Amino acid sequence: MPQDRLKEHIRGIIQIPEADLEAICACFQPQTVEKGTFLLRHGQICNFEGFVLEGCFRTFIIDEAGRENILHFSVRDWWLMDIDSFMNRRPSDLNIQALETSKVLLISQSDKQSLYQEVPIVEKLFRGMFQKALVAWQRRLIRNHCLTAKERYHHFINTYPEISSKLTDRQIASYLGITHEFLSKIKREIRTRT
Question: Is the CB of residue 122 less than 8 Å from the CB of residue 116?
């Protein structure tokens, strides 16, 4: 059952009564997203929060020069949404696209608000999730400011081999904030040293 992965994930964050866990998971609807399909496009309001069961998504923006800048990837057991658009009901600056046929569990903004009212432990759950996400963003920001591009590349492929194996070099370069050509140079240097 698709909700079983979500239950396991939630149990890893907080201790929760089974009835509350069932109530939370019942609000998430399974959806298959075909490769290339957008769950969210720039300018739309994000009406969902998603938990990835399988597959891979990219969250990205397009700058004024028309370049794609990948902010993050979401794979199995990761979350995806535009929190600003979701919470503040404003048009999104982001795009969220499936890089392969993927399966997700989605909860609507209205169902999440109902859960806050009906299942008080939800507040603790989402606070824990938010704190973990904030730590991850902070660590990435520090890496982007303190590590060289080569060090960032090594960190990415060593820390997330299951993600990096699904991506093109252009997607990895975009995520790292470097050009495709510079990533090719880094990879050539690595090959010549091994």
Answer: yes
Q: Model's pTM, two decimal places? A: 0.90
pLDDT in tens, 152-167: 999 999 998 888 888 9
The domains of the chain, with CATH numbers, are 3-120 (2.60.120.10)
Q: Which two tokens stand for residue 22?
A: 């069932």
Smallest CA-to-CA distance from 5 within 51, 65, 48, 56 is with 51
Annotate 83-123 with DSSP letters as a single string: HHHHHH----S-EEEESS-EEEEEEEHHHHHHHHHH-THHH
Q: Using one digit for the tens of pLDDT, what is the confidence trace for 24-77?
A: 999 999 999 999 999 999 999 999 999 999 999 999 999 999 989 999 999 999
Helix (H) or strand (E) holding 125: helix 121-146
Residue 59 DSSP code: E
